[in-house]
Structures are given as C-alpha cells and as structure tokens.
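Pasting as-is:
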Amino acid sequence: MTRVCVAGSTGWTGRAVAAAVDAAEDLELVSGVSRSSAGKDGAYATVAEALAAAPADVMVDFTSSEAVKGNVAAAFEAGVSVVIGSSGLSASDYDEIDAHARRAGVGVIAAGNFSLLAALLQRSALEVARHVDAWEIVDYASAGKPDVPSGTSRELAERLEQVRQPAVERPLDTLQGPVEARGATVGGTQIHSVRLPSFTVSTEIVFAAPGERLVLRHDPNESPEPYVAGTLYAIRAVRSRTGLTRGLDQLLA
C-alpha cells in the first residue's frame, strides 16, 4: 500500500486526484494540504505539517508555481517521493529539484500535463522534430491562468530542445515592429500564449516544410478527468526512481 499526501487537495485537479487515490485499492490517502481549508476535513496548512502528522510515501503537488518548490523541499526533507503537476517551473528549477532529489535519494516525476493524450502528443512531436526542422507552439488556456506559457507548452519546448532547435529563417533581432508579436522563446522554440474564456489548457504544435504543414493539437474539456489516470500511474512508478523524470511520455512503454 502506497501512502499519499495530496497538496492542493481542494483545487480543481487536486480534488479529483485525491478522490481517485482514496478509491484505489493499492493507494491510501493519508492527508491533504490546502491553505484555504486548513483545519477542515483533515486538511493541513503546509506539506511539512501533513507529513509530520501522517507519514507518506508520495507527495503529489497540484498547487501553484509560488508554492510548489517549498512543498517539494519539505517532502525531500521527510524522505518522501514527489509527483509534480503544478506549472510555472523553469528548466533551471527542475535542475535544482533533480539535484536535491538525488541528494535525498528519492524520485520525482514531473509533467506539464498528466493526460495520456497530451503525453502522446509530446512523444509524437519529438519524433517529428527529428525529421522536420521548423516548428512553433501555440498555447491556449483560460483567461485567468497566471503563468505563461503553460507548463505543458514549456515542457514540450524544453524537451524538443534535446532533439534540436528549430530553424529560424529571420532572426528576431532583424524584425520590424514589436518583437513580442513573435511570442516567447523557450528552448529555441517560439511559444504564443493565448488566454481566453472557454479554454482549459490546449496545446498546438505546427511543423512546417516547403509546401506542407503538420499540426498536432491536444484539446481537453473543462474537466480534470484527463489528468487523473496519468497522475495515479506516476504515483505508482515514482518510488522505484531516484532523481527527476520529466514527462509522462517517459513512463509509457
């Protein structure tokens, strides 16, 4: 039985993950962390408090970019493995987390998106990038999403950088007009973040070659359901690892 603490247990995704953990026969929900609901229904204000009160094997974080690093550090101090679903972390943040996890001798699985279809988009994009040398990403999310680009798009761009950087016909510093119109550069890839009502987190990557284009796109609905199964898969896998594994696609056979 794997004992699980869910940070962000009253949030949009965290609530669904906590319920799924509680219902799983091989997992045990031992605590939840929610600053807004601390003291109610067994929720704690901090990860450190939760782990001290109810020892866990895995801490799952669906909080915010402001809280996640502190939560992860508290888990490492307790010798607890971590699954990170929160967005807003940079490549350097993940390098720091990887080093800390190795010192602590625990595993971390982080994904910008725990949806199986989003993971397959990422795996497919990495393969296409080996054969097509020009691409850009369009990142769609809700109007109120605070971080740009989304964790899904950032992770995709940084994983593509490990294959190669895309060809750029006209360097940004030679453009006329506001360079911001070309989006943000992450790992050599241009990402265009659209923030409008009705979107959750949709990700589109456009590959282009002379005379043709290939578009890969993932569109979830307004439910956390797509992210639950992948998170449970990561919970079950993380204790067998040491250091950081980034991307749900890396767990797929």
